[in-house]
């Protein structure tokens, strides 16, 4: 078993031993609401992208939502509320309960390099699900930042007049569209890795459903 | 195909016939939208409603879209001006955009054209182009943002709509100014009164210092830099001040009616 996991579990031992719950109920609830909201946003977003593509490709209609631009916009601007409210609940509780600090910090370069090597050589253990390795910490912290960026860049292209200061932060309307697209690509990339790993370590999926 | 071709009566314009027939059929894109909504089983998680009844998905989305109208109206600040740009930023050529080709766009004779003024106004007289040209005009270089996502910067010159509404004694406490256009199928669009009174909302007569070309809505376009492009009607023939929501060409098909930017 990896010594890395063991080291970290000692740091969070009190929480882990007094209560076997790995993922508290609020984490599980916001996680699955987020999964639904993200899927709706991404699939409708692809249909919106198709109306005026930024690159030389479009998304197959079979993986888009809404049927046409008007329908996709309706889905996108409806799921937006779900995503934003759920995201705010997640960020608030993550900060207030200290979960972000306990689970995601610190992230060190040595730790990330070491764990990446361990992962690539098959030596990274998932024996203790209550602690994240450095690669997980980096990815989870990173995707939270991307999540904030995609919402802000989305607001910037939705309201480039009323929120023009925000649009200016992204370098203007056109630039904000690209930021929004690349954040989507990062989230899709993250999701693919996330789902593959969850299937490879089924007990992590169980923990995200029943908590332990 | 050959059999279908034989069905056409000689002397009938096939293109016109097909176009008329298409109009009689249900809107294809709308049907696609409904199908798209119905296929999403996950919706049950959100609403508890039966997704096999696809209309419930559509009506839920329509309700949220109306809620979004209200949120955008609340976000709208009448004093916030749309960003303006230098002349060097103007997109040339500025794109023609329509749901029809340019050759099908209204071709209006400015001498015959009159702007009809209806509804909650004191003076309902029609206005000729010459009369409108004599009103004080100003120029603005702003970004036009299409609902599709693309954008282009243009230079528009015309009369403040708020000035005109004041001139005809419009009830500016009414909810909407509803525009009708010369397009064959009667393009129309409602504009909420706060947006109509915005200082940059313009009755536009010139584009890039030239008389408004046919492509951009000759003889008069309503330029609303605080709205998406489809809320900027071209080839306008009448405006009506009203408290009734009368729908619009794209609004009726599902585009969010406020569509502010």
From TrEMBL, chain A:
<feature type="transmembrane region" description="Helical">
    <location>
        <begin position="138"/>
        <end position="158"/>
    </location>
</feature>
<feature type="domain" description="Cytochrome b561 bacterial/Ni-hydrogenase">
    <location>
        <begin position="23"/>
        <end position="209"/>
    </location>
</feature>
<protein>
    <submittedName>
        <fullName>Cytochrome b/b6 domain-containing protein</fullName>
    </submittedName>
</protein>
<keyword id="KW-0349">Heme</keyword>
<keyword id="KW-1003">Cell membrane</keyword>
<keyword id="KW-0249">Electron transport</keyword>
<dbReference type="InterPro" id="IPR016174">
    <property type="entry name" value="Di-haem_cyt_TM"/>
</dbReference>
<keyword id="KW-0408">Iron</keyword>
<keyword id="KW-0812">Transmembrane</keyword>
<dbReference type="InterPro" id="IPR011577">
    <property type="entry name" value="Cyt_b561_bac/Ni-Hgenase"/>
</dbReference>
<keyword id="KW-0479">Metal-binding</keyword>
<dbReference type="Pfam" id="PF01292">
    <property type="entry name" value="Ni_hydr_CYTB"/>
</dbReference>
<comment type="similarity">
    <text>Belongs to the HupC/HyaC/HydC family.</text>
</comment>
<keyword id="KW-0472">Membrane</keyword>
<keyword id="KW-0813">Transport</keyword>
<keyword id="KW-1133">Transmembrane helix</keyword>
<dbReference type="GO" id="GO:0005506">
    <property type="term" value="F:iron ion binding"/>
</dbReference>
<dbReference type="InterPro" id="IPR051542">
    <property type="entry name" value="Hydrogenase_cytochrome"/>
</dbReference>
<dbReference type="GO" id="GO:0009055">
    <property type="term" value="F:electron transfer activity"/>
</dbReference>
<dbReference type="GO" id="GO:0005886">
    <property type="term" value="C:plasma membrane"/>
</dbReference>
<dbReference type="GO" id="GO:0022904">
    <property type="term" value="P:respiratory electron transport chain"/>
</dbReference>
<feature type="transmembrane region" description="Helical">
    <location>
        <begin position="29"/>
        <end position="49"/>
    </location>
</feature>
From TrEMBL, chain B:
<feature type="domain" description="Oxidoreductase molybdopterin-binding">
    <location>
        <begin position="105"/>
        <end position="250"/>
    </location>
</feature>
<dbReference type="InterPro" id="IPR000572">
    <property type="entry name" value="OxRdtase_Mopterin-bd_dom"/>
</dbReference>
<dbReference type="InterPro" id="IPR036374">
    <property type="entry name" value="OxRdtase_Mopterin-bd_sf"/>
</dbReference>
<protein>
    <submittedName>
        <fullName>Molybdopterin-binding protein</fullName>
    </submittedName>
</protein>
<dbReference type="Pfam" id="PF00174">
    <property type="entry name" value="Oxidored_molyb"/>
</dbReference>
């Amino acid at each position: 078993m990896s010594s890395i996991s063991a080291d970290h579990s000692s740091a969070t031992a009190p929480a882990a031993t007094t209560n076997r719950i790995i993922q508290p109920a609020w984490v599980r609830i916001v996680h699955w609401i987020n999964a639904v909201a993200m899927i709706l946003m991404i699939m409708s977003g692809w249909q919106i992208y198709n109306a005026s593509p930024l690159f030389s490709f479009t998304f197959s209609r079979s993986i888009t939502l809404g049927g046409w631009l008007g329908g996709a916009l309706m889905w996108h601007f409806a799921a937006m509320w779900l995503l934003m409210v759920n995201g705010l609940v997640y960020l608030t509780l993550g900060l207030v309960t200290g979960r972000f600090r306990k689970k995601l910090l610190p992230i060190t370069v040595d730790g990330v390099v070491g764990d990446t090597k361990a992962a690539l050589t098959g030596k990274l253990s998932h024996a203790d699900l209550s602690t994240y390795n450095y690669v997980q910490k980096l990815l989870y912290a990173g995707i939270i930042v991307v999540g904030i960026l995609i919402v802000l860049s989305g607001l910037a292209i939705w309201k480039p007049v009323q929120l023009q200061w925000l649009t200016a932060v992204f370098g203007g309307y056109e630039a904000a569209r690209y930021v929004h697209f690349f954040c989507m690509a990062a989230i899709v990339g993250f999701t693919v890795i996330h789902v593959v790993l969850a299937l490879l370590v089924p007990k992590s999926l169980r923990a995200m459903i029943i908590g332990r | 195909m050959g059999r279908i071709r034989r069905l056409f009566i000689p002397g009938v314009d096939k293109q016109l016939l097909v176009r008329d027939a298409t109009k009689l059929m249900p809107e294809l894109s709308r049907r696609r939208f409904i199908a798209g909504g119905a296929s999403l089983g996950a919706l049950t998680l959100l609403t508890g409603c039966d997704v096999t009844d696809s209309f419930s998905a559509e009506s839920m989305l329509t309700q949220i879209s109306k809620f979004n109208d209200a949120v955008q109206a609340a976000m709208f600040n009448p004093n916030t001006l749309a960003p303006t740009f230098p002349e060097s930023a103007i997109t040339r050529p500025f794109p023609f955009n329509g749901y029809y080709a340019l050759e099908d766009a209204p071709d209006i004779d400015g001498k015959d054209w009159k702007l009809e003024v209806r509804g909650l106004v004191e003076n309902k007289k029609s206005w000729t182009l010459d009369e409108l040209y004599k009103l004080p005009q100003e120029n603005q270089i702003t970004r036009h943002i299409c609902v599709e996502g693309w954008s282009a910067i243009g230079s528009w010159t015309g009369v403040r709509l708020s000035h005109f509404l004041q001139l005809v004694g419009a009830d500016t406490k009414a909810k909407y100014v509803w525009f009708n256009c010369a397009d064959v199928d009667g393009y129309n669009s409602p504009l909420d009164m706060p947006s109509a009174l915005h200082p940059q909302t313009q009755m536009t007569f010139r584009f890039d210092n030239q008389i408004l070309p046919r492509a951009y809505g000759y003889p008069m376009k309503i330029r609303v830099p605080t709205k998406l492009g489809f809320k900027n009607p071209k080839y306008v023939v009448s405006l009506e001040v009203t408290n009734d929501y009368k729908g619009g060409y794209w609004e009726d098909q599902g585009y969010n009616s406020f569509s502010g930017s």
